[in-house]
Amino acid sequence: MTVERAPGYIHTFSPAEQRRLIDQALFLEPYHHTGIDFAGCQSILEVGCGVGAQMSLLLRRWPGARFTGVDQSETQIARARQTLARALAEGRAELHLVPGERLAFKDASFDGACVFWVFEHAPQPLPILREILRVLKPGGVLFATEVFDQALHVFPRSAAIEVYFQAFMALQTEFGGEPNIGIRMPGLLAQAGFSDIAITDVSPTLDARMTEPTARRAFLDYFQTLLLSGSGPLLERGRVKQHVIDGLRQDFARLNDDPAAVFSFGAKQVRGIKPRA
Ligand SMILES: C[S@@+](CC[C@H](N)C(=O)[O-])C[C@H]1O[C@@H](n2cnc3c(N)ncnc32)[C@H](O)[C@@H]1O
Known about the structure:
Blueprint: H1 15-32, E1 43-47, H2 53-61, E2 66-71, H3 74-83, H4 85-89, E3 93-97, E4 110-116, H5 125-135, E5 136-147, E6 153-155, H6 159-174, H7 181-192, E7 195-201, E8 205-206, H8 213-228, H9 231-236, H10 242-257, E9 262-264, E10 267-273
Parallel strand pairs: 1-2, 1-4, 2-3, 4-5
Antiparallel strand pairs: 5-10, 6-9, 7-10, 8-9
Helix pairs in contact: 5-7, 6-10, 8-10
The protein binds S-adenosylmethionine (SAM).
């Protein structure tokens, strides 16, 4: 199997990373899908649908809607065809290999649109937002969920996580992405022409309220895996040393054992409406 070379994509397109996207969408569903309201929407577009992880949740959550996914990566779309095989066969979903900057759809084609974790990797978010606005019907709604990495908070402090995450953000920025794009999203939607813009903090957070050991372990395991999904490119380029990664693993284990620990990962969800003219 050939794996797409992606020098500018920190997470890589490896099969393990594709599986991580499926696990990620499911794990984060309670944080990032409960605020999305597609009531009354019959046709919904997802830009940067990746391997179809979010669309499989959306199909379950919005049974009356039909979904169209686009991604610029052939490898991701091929994997999405497997994830969404049933919905594709039933005609509830379709997939297109196109970039978000050039959506191959007529004006006013969709009632709703959504984007998860794509603008953080896009050197130019505005052309994508303008295309989404074009293909939405007047009154159509966009929900975009994006990272705000500088809000990462770890208590007690972990030097290893801080050093590692700084290197992670720096490399993502070098690749043309923007690790703090979440906080800029309302302004970008306004620049693109959306109205009724609202932003919600949707940062997954572990603190002393989470007492169930399995839930704590799953939460910390998920974020350790997310951070380490960039370890290949970081190690290859000498941006982090192995001892930092070892230290990060030890500190995640310490957080798990500390009932007062806090781990909060910054994320924002923004909603905008296409004006009715
Ligand atoms: C982190 S993955 C997220 C995938 C999916 N949204 C999810 O949450 O599982 C980012 C995806 O955005 C895609 N992508 C990045 N820039 C894009 C663009 N300009 N147009 C279309 N897809 C893009 C990548 O190929 C990748 O599949």
